[in-house]
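From the pipeline queue, job 12 of 40. The input is one protein chain; the requested action is below.

Action: predict structure.
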Amino acid sequence: MDFLDSMKIMDEEVLTGTYFEQIPETPKDKGVFFEYDIVDESDKSYARLLNNIQTEETFQTIKTDDSIDFKVKGYVVTQDGLLWQIAGIIKRLKHDGNKEALRIIKETIQTSRIIRLTQVENPWELR
């Protein structure tokens, strides 16, 4: 957390999570704490592995204003204790009223990230 993070208005992001760049090896591995809001609740669908074999997958979409360098195939533990793998990231540059700032810096303090998650097993019961 830095000075710019303290300037953000975070009235929507009340849930907390932890980001891991790679799957944790032990329960003592530390991740990066962040705050988020749920965009789309969990939904289940079936994916076809082979011609007649299907598997069930659970997806969720979250949004965060924290300036963490999330990576696709990274891992997120949500507040409910579920472990998710990052399937996609959309970086939304909110430049309402301060578009000129983007000439000098790469992103403003209003930049948010929309993250699409796929649920995976949480063997260490990480939080």
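Job complete. Helices lie at 3-7.
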